[in-house]
Design goal:
Elements (H helix, E strand, L loop, with lengths): L13 H11 L18 H7 L1 H19 L12 E2 L8 H13 L4 E7 L6 H16 L30 E7 L6 H17 L6 E5 L1 H35 L2 H26 L4 E2 L2 H37 L8 H31 L7 H31 L1 H4 L12 H11 L1 H16 L7 E2 L11 H12 L8 E5 L3 H10 L9 E2 L3 E4 L2 E7 L9 H11 L6 E4 L1 H35 L3 H26 L4 H4 L7 E2 L2 H29 L4 H31 L4 H33 L8 H10 L4
Parallel strand pairs: 1-5, 6-12
Antiparallel strand pairs: 2-3, 2-4, 7-10, 7-11, 8-10, 9-10
């Protein structure tokens, strides 16, 4: 594979390496810098020659992408198309839920709560409020909407009264499922305005319901996105200025990050037209795009500055001045793409393979996250291989003013590798024990699928929904619902004589007719939490003891059970596909079967440790004050698969960074122990800097108020910290040193295959 100017390998002898190094300060053969155009015709030469056109094209594309996602060209923009997508999978609970929605014609709901209404006023106030609500929901714009409170069934009238809040009243309008999100929000606003107009003095009104909850979640996502980016961008810039020693070099990776975010958001807008897109996906994609772009930009810019310094040293060794020509700048661009560009490509492919695993799961929300993740990975790689090197080429004269030490073989990272090599088994056993201890809480992980609980505890909508659940429990969504193919009388007889007396069932709502021979009933489970498992017990009991007619058990817990079972059933196949693809890719890179297998094992260890640590924090309620959250005794159901997919990809990211330099040293003739130390030295600064910057990005989003974003941010930060320190800097060099020449083992047929098809510069 030709990426640009071809590197000369010096594997024939160490003497050849020494000769090359003496001429240009590196292991590369000198290339002429006579002021003419470079002879290379590869991709690197194309980027060098068309740098201005590439930058201009990206500028136009980024502006158009941001304008489109903001709604500048109509359509409402990205955030207008976001939903609260539950982790549905095909199954009994999903089927039952569809029957409920079809029978009830139910979509979003608008709830109005009045507090401070004296009993003597309630009849008059209730009549006025109900009338204005009816006037709003029965307009031509929303003629399919209806208000259950308008025509109360006597059996459910009690649901609108509260023994714990006798001076409170509640009204609920349920809107048709076919109404557009913007129309539902407009109805909610109209209801609020109309009720305010007839409110007596001294009465407090609060408006909520699913429509307002979704609106607040979407708004909170936007706020958290601004918070995360507002923290991440300035801090990463400061760190990169320290790392690079200048603003220009530091700013180049951020340019790539902005481009990746723009492309990722545009891709999300496209996906939102074909599938329900959860509001939190925006932050997830932004996290991934920002982190990867900074990683890749750091690698590209760092290597570009090394190549500029090499060429300057070469000129001085040839008796010329150290001022580089335009041809030198072009040559540095080619060499950078030939080396760091290759690493970026490998890294991007490994991350893409990992993220693609999400697409293989049956849940629509994981598919959407996977597709969006693939899009942002592709854009981040494209920006790193085009925009960033093009910008670096245009800024080459400024970047060349500050020399960097190219490819030093000794230094603090090599010293660390030597220290690990002196205490091999202590290092290996110590790291493995630490990772296993951190992973232990993973055994007791519980999952939950939240709605209003995603919002901060201080949010008015969350407070209102909690108050309604406490004071008007019958109006809330039942913990468990049963859809039956029978008549009302038969269902009523069964639930009254049987279901109502089962463990943890504390209330049964009136049976209602859904039409088409279907009926439904809701069950209440008092005091149910993820930790006590009462609702789950009821669901399992209903599955085990069916009546004499067909039934479908649904509700939040039933849907969650179907989701987790589907994920668990599909997981082995997804793991095999991702592992095999990763193994093939790393084999093409290294020619070894052992190194890819070790990488998979170590990734599993670090992921298990980070998931366990996250469970200990969020499920068990540690560091609540520090992190600004309230534990709900469980982990959001989509978080584990996201962390595994993204965490695995990022771990392979650093593995590729590290292995590329170790393989490079090995192919230049270094023995195994020295190749490891040299590879660690040459990649350590990039890996640790990239990890530090990625952690800053993740912690920026850990400051989010949405608990699911906070869990993802903290979880990925933990994964990166553990992987970049314990695994890559200690476990990898220790095990590679122990295994020696066996690191490069592969069956003879595979070796021949690699010799023919292996990916090289």
């Amino acid at each position: 594979m030709r990426w640009g100017a071809t590197r000369q390998r010096a594997g024939a002898s160490r003497a050849d390496d020494s000769s090359a190094a003496s001429s240009n300060g590196s292991g590369h053969s000198p290339e002429p810098t006579d002021g003419g155009r470079p002879s290379g015709r590869g991709y690197g030469a194309f980027v060098a020659r068309h740098a201005k056109a590439i930058v201009l094209t990206w500028l136009v594309a980024v502006v158009l992408a941001f304008a489109t996602t903001a709604g500048a060209f109509g359509g409402g923009g990205l955030f207008a198309h976001l939903r609260q997508a539950e982790p549905f999978v095909p199954g009994e609970a999903h089927t039952g839920n569809d029957m409920l929605l079809t029978g009830d014609k139910a979509g979003g709901s608008v709830a109005v709560r009045l507090d401070g209404v004296a009993s003597s006023q309630q009849a008059a106030v209730g009549a006025k409020v109900q009338q204005v609500i009816d006037d709003v929901v029965h307009t031509s714009a929303v003629e399919s909407a209806y208000s259950p409170a308008a025509k109360r069934d006597p059996r459910v009238a009690a649901a609108y009264r509260s023994s714990s809040a006798p001076e409170s009243m509640v009204f609920v309008a349920t809107l048709d499922a076919g109404l557009d999100k913007s129309v539902q929000e407009d109805v909610s606003a109209q209801v609020t305005k109309a009720v305010e107009a007839v409110m007596p003095a001294g009465v407090r009104m609060r408006t909520g319901g699913s429509v307002e909850v979704l609106k607040r979640i979407t708004d909170q996502v936007q706020e958290d996105l601004k918070t995360g980016e507002g923290i991440a961008f300035p801090l990463t810039l400061i760190v990169m200025v320290i790392v690079f020693g200048g603003f220009i070099a530091a700013g180049l990776p951020l340019i790539g990050a902005i481009a990746a975010i723009a492309g990722g958001l545009l891709a999300l807008l496209g996906f939102s037209h074909v599938t329900d897109l959860d509001a939190t996906v925006v932050n997830i994609v932004t996290i991934l795009g920002l982190g990867l772009s900074i990683d890749y930009g750091l690698l590209i810019v760092g290597r570009f500055r090394e190549e500029l310094s090499r060429l300057a040293l070469q000129r001085e060794a040839d008796g010329l001045d150290g001022v580089l020509t335009s041809a030198d700048h072009d040559l540095a661009t080619q060499r950078t793409i030939a080396t760091a560009g290759r690493t970026v490509l490998f890294s991007g492919l490994t991350v893409a393979i990992s993220v693609a695993g999400l697409v293989l799961f049956p849940a629509s929300v994981t598919k959407a996250i996977g597709l969006a993740g693939l899009s942002v990975v592709a854009v981040a790689c494209l920006a790193a291989l085009t925009l960033v090197p093009a910008c670096a080429r245009l800024a080459a004269a400024r970047l060349a003013k500050k020399r960097v030490q190219p490819d030093a073989d000794e230094g603090r990272f090599a010293d660390l590798a030597h220290a690990v090599q002196r205490h091999l088994w202590i290092s290996i056993c110590g790291v493995v024990v630490v990772l296993l201890v951190l992973a232990a809480p993973l055994i007791g992980m519980r999952q939950v699928s939240s709605t209003s609980a995603l919002l901060p505890t201080s949010d008015p909508q969350r407070t209102l929904m909690n108050d309604l659940a406490h004071d008007f429990p019958a109006l809330g969504e039942p913990a468990v619902s049963i859809v039956g193919e029978t008549d009302v009388a038969t269902m009523t007889k069964w639930v009254s004589s049987d279901v109502a007396h089962r463990g943890y069932v504390t209330g049964v709502n009136p049976v209602r007719d859904l039409g088409d021979g279907k009926v439904a009933v809701g069950l209440r489970v008092d005091g149910a939490t993820p930790s006590n498992g009462r609702t789950q017990h009821v669901v399992h009991d209903l599955h085990a003891h069916r009546p004499g007619f067909p039934t479908w058990v649904t509700g939040q817990q039933a849907k969650l059970d179907d989701y987790t079972h589907a994920i668990a059933a599909r997981a082995p196949y997804v793991v095999l596909v991702v592992a095999f693809a990763t193994l093939v890719l790393l084999f093409l890179m290294t020619g070894s079967l052992v190194l890819p297998l070790k990488a998979l094992l170590f990734n599993a260890l670090s992921l298990g440790a980070s998931l366990g640590a996250m469970t200990w924090i969020f499920q068990n309620g540690h560091f609540e004050s520090l992190l600004g959250y309230t534990s709900n005794d469980a982990i959001e159901s989509t978080v584990p698969v996201i962390l595994i997919a993204f965490g695995f990809g990022l771990a392979m990211d650093y593995e590729v960074f590290l292995l590329s330099r170790i393989v490079e040293a090995h192919e230049h003739g270094d023995d195994d122990a020295r190749a490891v130390a040299v590879g660690i030295q040459r990649s350590g600064r990039i890996v640790t800097s990239a990890a530090l910057l990625m952690v800053i990005v993740m912690l920026g989003f850990a400051a989010a108020k949405m608990v699911i974003i906070k869990q993802i941010g903290v979880g990925l930060a933990l994964s990166i910290i553990l992987d970049a320190t314990l695994v890559r800097m200690i476990l990898v060099p220790a095990t590679m040193t122990v295994m020696g020449r066996w690191n490069w083992w592969a069956p003879a047929p595979m070796k021949r295959w690699h010799a023919r098809f292996g990916l090289r510069d």
